[in-house]
Amino acid sequence: MKKPHELSRRSAVARILADRRDTLVVTGLGSPTYDCAAAGDHPLNFYLWGAMGSAVTVGLGLALAQPKRRVLVLTGDGEMLMGLGALATVAVKRPHNFALVVIDNEHYGETGMQRSHTAAGVDLAGIALACGFRWAATVKQAGELEEVMPILHTAEGPIVVVLKVSSDRDPLVLPPWDGALLKSRFRQGLLEVPLG
Amino acid sequence: MTRRAPEGDGAEQSAVTAADAQHWPNLVFQKLREFDVRHVTYVPDAGQTRLIELCHASREMEPTVLTTEEEGIGILAGAWLGGERGVLLMQSSGVGNCINVLSLAKVCSFPLLMIISMRGEWGEANPWQVPMGQIAAENLRLAGVIVYEVTEPAAAAPAVEAAARIAFNGGLMVAVLLSQRMLGAKLFKD
């Protein structure tokens, strides 16, 4: 029997976002969106509540349009598995400002905790590297997370950190889900001329 | 067997149509430039080869090849968040791949300009293309996309201009469908 992962997703995400400075954040649907909201709502967080498989591509478009800003995509293993091809597309575009964190609890947390492919050994960091990401790491302990933190926030992208986290459920913390509001406040927060 | 069928009946009109048939990709490209389209995301299609070449040759364009069409919807949403515009090019077989991700553009009112070359629509030789081709336009409309169907080369650039204005001014999803009547059907012959 495999030993369960101990890392707390909430504390890991809070730790990562504590160092965000002016980073633009995109989150994948489900728990990553709640984890990010639990760390504190922010106008430069763009939360996905659907369109499963799209977190990485939204982050890619943003990174290409804003090459001077760091872009951090936080998503889950299930969401990532639905859009694996996007890892290849990102790797080919090689955005230097793109970082990805996959919060991997090896389960589909929104739908009854069914096991995902990562529970059976599918290696998301390995896939990203094989696609051509510049750097990838799989992190299982809080101490390891501290070690990769500077890389995550400053190293040349595209890079990925897969966080192997506990599958324990955390309390729901829900950010706004009005998509037009999330879009407009993000643009207002980022752009000098947000309209048009 | 269906072949490229000029719509005009007089010799002069046919000549004009033939010239436009060569030139429509340049005119569409020009419209994209006029609307400050920068991100050109695409899954290749033979019908848009020339347009894709023009986009790659442009310093102002940022072309991104996709592994599947719905990636383009995400990329263009992200680009818009970052203050830039784009277009998604695909063939009609990609419409089905996009359906769920269209909810991203719909819910958030992201502008989404799509140029879609048709397969399985008019004189298609490959029967496997027909089921998706026949329901592509209806599926797009069901998903809330405004659809302009173009059957003549001369109508392509004006349709793209109209679509771009509606999409970018209104935060709406608009698809320009390029018919096999103007592109011709792939006949699987050397």
Plain-language structure description:
The complex is a heterodimer of chains A (196) and B (190). Chain A is an alpha/beta fold. Chain A has helices at residues 9-18, 31-38, 55-65, 77-82, 85-93, 124-131, 142-154, 179-190, and strands at 24-27, 45-47, 71-76, 98-104, 107-108, 114-115, 135-139, 159-164. The longest helix of chain A is centred in the C-terminal third of the chain and has 13 residues, at 142-154. Chain A is globular. Chain B is globular and about 45 Å long. The two termini of chain B are 16 Å apart. In chain B, strand 5, helix 7 (156-170) and strand 6 (173-178) form a beta-alpha-beta unit. Chain B has helices at 11-34, 49-57, 70-81, 95-98, 102-108, 130-142, 156-170, 180-183, and strands at 37-42, 62-65, 85-91, 112-117, 146-150, 173-178. The A-B interface holds A 24, 26, 46, 48-66, 83, 85-86, 88-89, 92-93, 179-180, 182-183, 186-187, 190-191, 193 and B 38-39, 62, 64-68, 70-84, 86, 100-101, 103-104, 107-110, 171.
Low-confidence stretches of chain A: none
Q: Helix/strand/pairing class of chain A, anyone?
A: alpha/beta
> Considering DSSP H and I runs of 4 or more, what fraction of the residues of chain B is helical?
40-55%
Q: In sequence order, what are the helices and strands of chain B, one letter per element?
A: HEHEHEHHEHEHEH
Task: Point out poorly predicted stretches of chain B.
Answer: 1-13
Biggest sheet architecture of chain A? 6 strands, parallel
What do the pLDDT scores of chain A average to?
Answer: 95
DSSP strand content of chain B: 15-25%
What is the count of helical runs of chain A? 8
The separation of the N and C termini of chain A measures: 56 Å
Layout of helices and strands, plus pairs?
The complex is a heterodimer of chains A (196) and B (190).
Chain A (H helix, E strand, L loop, with lengths): L8 H10 L5 E4 L3 H8 L6 E3 L7 H11 L5 E6 H6 L2 H9 L4 E7 L2 E2 L5 E2 L8 H8 L3 E5 L2 H13 L4 E6 L14 H12 L6
Helix pairs in contact in A: 1-2
Chain B lengths: L10 H24 L2 E6 L6 H9 L4 E4 L4 H12 L3 E7 L3 H4 L3 H7 L3 E6 L12 H13 L3 E5 L5 H15 L2 E6 L1 H4 L7
Parallel strand pairs in B: 1-2, 1-3, 3-4, 4-6, 5-6
Helix pairs in contact in B: 1-2, 1-7
